[in-house]
Amino acid sequence: MIAGLRLSVSLLTIVPVRATGTGRDAARQAMLLAPVIGLIVGAAAAIPLLLGPLGLDPLPRAVLAVAAMALITRALHLDGLADLADGLGSGRPPEEALAVMKRSDIGPFGVVTLLLALLLQVAALAATPDAAAAVLIAAVTGRLVLAWACRSGVASARPGGLGALVAGTISTRAALAATVLVLMAAAATGAAFDLGALRAVLAVLAALAVALLMLRHATRRLGGVTGDVFGALVELATTTTLVVLSTA
């Protein structure tokens, strides 16, 4: 379990933790423990959101919070979102779409998707009174989808890479257990702040629904999952959570 946690930290953040295990079992644990890493990402984003007493307005605080999330994750999830958008937007067969996703440049689909996601995140945080609590819930929920993306029956689109290492390693029962824990934590956080327990639960469920729909579409188009698919799902779930939590 410790090896999986260390690997999860090293894979999903810039926190300087040396992974002590890189095998398939450690990778499975890393994906299952990913919501815990969401607390690190959410805490980093919450810091600028708590700067209101220093005179900083909600909008610049929201921009700094989104920047903090990008920084602590090396912007890998954002890169995955852009790459998946380019791959799916190309309309090409699976092999060619995967080749598009591996390119170092970003195409028009990726640019537009990236901008829309970032704008939605900033706008949602700026409109949420308890934005620090909201970003914690969103960061945890975003990483919860990794368990579902790695569950049994989900194939890898490539013979190598992160997708091949973790695809199909997590049982549906384990993914459900992780979901229940996140829902309980989200409800407690929502109740403790001005978000509301029900809204927090609905935000998590909506994020999962959006992520699972995209997962289904991506696996059908590409033949399985890749590291870019994982990153895109994290960003989609994070964005959806923030948008739902920002509603009155």
Write a concise synopsis of the structure shown:
With 248 residues, the chain is mainly α.
What is the C-alpha radius of gyration, as a whole number of Å?
Answer: 17 Å
H-E order: HHHHHHHHHHHH
Number of domains: 1
> How does the helix and strand content classify structurally?
mainly alpha
The number of helical elements comes to 12
Helical content class: over 70%
- The number of strands is 0
Terminus-to-terminus distance: 40 Å
Rough outline: globular
Largest sheet: none
**Overall pLDDT, averaged?**
93
Strand portion, in percent?
under 5%
Low confidence ranges: none
What would you note in describing this structure?
The protein has 248 residues and is mainly α. It has one domain (2-246). The protein contains twelve helices and no strands. Helix 3 (34-49) packs antiparallel against helix 4, helix 5 (76-89) runs antiparallel to helix 6 (94-102) and helix 8 (131-149) packs parallel to helix 11 (197-222). The N and C termini lie far apart (40 Å). The model has no long low-confidence stretch (mean pLDDT 93).
List keywords for this structure.
248 residues; mainly alpha; 12 helices
